[in-house]
Amino acid sequence: MKEDKHVITMLVDNEPGVLxxxxxxxxxxxxxxxxxxxxxxxxxxxxxxxxVTKANPPVVEQIEKQLNKLINVIKVRDLTHEDAVQRxxxxxxxxxxxxxxxxxxxxxxxxxxxxxxxxxEHFIIEVTGDEGKLTALLNLLKPMGIKKIxxxxxxxxxxxxx
Amino acid sequence: xxxxxxxxxxxxxxxxxxxxxxxxxxxxxxxxYDELVKTDIRHILVRHEQGAVHAADGYARASxxxxxxxxxxxxxxxxxxxxxxxxxxxxxxxxxxxxxxPTHLIGNDAFQEVDITGITRPCxxxxxxxxxxxxxxxVMREAFYIANTGRPGPxxxxxxxxxxxxxxxxxxNAQVRIKSYQPNYKPNMKQLKKVIGLLKKAKRPxxxxxxxxxxxxxxxxFTEFARQTRTPVTTSLMGLGAFxxxxxxxxxxxxxxxxxxxxxxAGNCDxxxxxxxxxxxxxxxxxxxxxxxxxxxxxxxxxxxxxxxVQVAVPVVGDCRESLERLNALIAEDTISDFAExxxxxxxxxxxxxxxxxxxxxxxxxxxxxxxxxxxxxELTKGRAIITTEVGQNQMWAAQFYHFDGPRQFLTSGGLGTxxxxxxxxxxxxxxxxxxxxxxxxxxxxxxxxxxEMATAVQSCLPVKIVILNNGYLGMVRQWQELFYDRRYACxxxxxxxxxxxxxxxxxxxxxxxxxxxxxxxxxxxxxxxxGTVIMDFVVEKEExxxxxxxxxxxxTEMLLV
Lengths: 162, 562
Prior knowledge:
The complex is a heterodimer.
Chain A (H helix, E strand, L loop, with lengths): L3 E10 L4 H11 L6 E6 L5 E10 L1 H13 L3 E6 L5 E12 L2 H13 L3 E5 L3 E8 L1 H11 L4 E6 L3 E4 L4
Antiparallel strand pairs in A: 1-3, 1-4, 2-3, 5-7, 5-8, 5-9, 6-7
Chain B lengths: L1 E3 H11 L4 E5 L5 H7 L5 E4 L3 H15 L3 E5 L3 H4 L2 H9 L4 E7 L15 H5 L5 E4 L3 H16 L5 E7 H5 L1 E3 L19 H13 L3 E5 L1 H5 L3 H11 L3 E3 L14 E4 L6 H9 L2 E5 L5 H4 L10 E6 L13 E4 L2 H14 L10 H13 L13 H11 L5 E4 L3 H9 L8 E2 L10 H11 L5 E6 L10 H6 L5 E6 L4 H10 L15 H7 L3 E5 L5 H10 L4 E6 L23
Parallel strand pairs in B: 2-3, 2-4, 4-5, 5-7, 6-7, 9-10, 9-12, 10-11, 12-13, 13-14, 15-16, 15-17, 17-18, 18-20, 19-20
Antiparallel strand pairs in B: 1-8
């Protein structure tokens, strides 16, 4: 059966060990984690966890059900096929030799990202976007030489009714 | 009123109606024990913490009330893990209280420190480390609530020594409020009406029940459902006793060592109504072909059980008893349809399978057959004893040859398959039901895994009877080696065993032995009539195997019959 990417978001009690319960569930049952992002919400004591996973439909159903079964998980939602906004931030340290400096800045401009650190030999670029945008940018920067990269993993929210 | 953590713990245990605790003291729980002896809660001192958990488990299975045990930190806590995993796999309500080193030492690799909440996270329904005495009352109440509701399971509460000693105001009315845990008991009526629709049309219906029926006390509604619709019934190992073994609709157990007619019925039915089951691989064999000609209805309280292993036509999430009661009401309302008229032919077919191959064995005059011992035990206890088992051949023969008429009568480690379960579980069951005869059906291998609990049984005056089917082998593994490994008996021969009669005597119990078929009845009679704990050692046929048998991963209608 075909495995597709799924963005699963959940609200959890902000208690010690909750992340271990969620991650342990994925590890113990052989589910896959592509990325994971956790932080507190505005409600005191409630955090949001966003997990990107790759799985076939029956496994995704199990993932959702098993997460719901955890006592500390308040609500689970698969946002993959929903009307949701999805973003990820990446910091890219790219080699910036003199012949490429202008080209890199042009790309930065086109993609509306920011240069947050400059040196004689490098730029660090901050970019936010969905997966398509990030992949496109990385493909363009690859020929210049990417020295280091740090990604936050995806976060997502349902759009509100207009 | 100000109270210490240990006093609060006792107050909550009393409020929850706890009468018996199984445990083993140690440094981290010494303050809790100091309070425990001031209450009227009965403490049963085990010889190993694994025994405490299995005993609490047996207590819960026999009584339906949550089992409670209390152990110390470090090794005391790690020794409970097998017992907790056993209870978790079989959904047994239990609260395990472990001591922990003082909070300021946590994480310092202190003496007898272990991260027990980390270790037991995957095998508890939920667990807690109580870091402040102010949380203790709420956490303990939540622990009982979670253990006992929805799909039941074990909950562990880890209490550091300083929390047990700290003082706080005792809030008698602290309410349980868990916003993220609301088990759903009520089935969807639309789904249940679909079940009735399928049942009316079915020509070859089969009911397949499991442990969920026993956990939700659904036996009565289940039996009524089957009888009203005249549908044949099979159950998993965990469901034995949910339907009377003497009823003509009863087919026997399904699965790897299920009866011929139960497995054939599963392979040929056109509608399978599965209730309180989880389609374990020991039941389904090859899942692709399991109930291959049938539409499957699956009723269970745990949504994760549904569509986990098999595809289902009608899923129903709800409590087994509530669902069955509603189904029975729908059937009673329908005065027009005759639910049984469609499947008379099917009932004839099932009857034919019954006569084609029955559970059987040949008892000669020389060597005792293990099945014969169990049939005799069934006869002499009039089928009314609470039976616990170890794991392996003894367990399967007990399931096949002791016919259970009621729920909470057969206590066995079904999911995890824990050798060493039977004796401590029997002790727990006896503590819960002192007026019932409690018999552990054991093998000579598995009885030795928790044999130390003999001392518990004798000290605590919980006279259980132990039937050892002694074949000198780890029999079930030997059977697999015989059938699938060209009789290479790798490390399954136990040719040096203790003298179980002398061992019983050493523990202050009675030891009896039978080596010939004509001695079996006399030994059983004497053992059952004795007032104390008894080991009955039956020296049985060494290479007897359990049949029918479905090789692992095969279609369950492809059975090895002899």
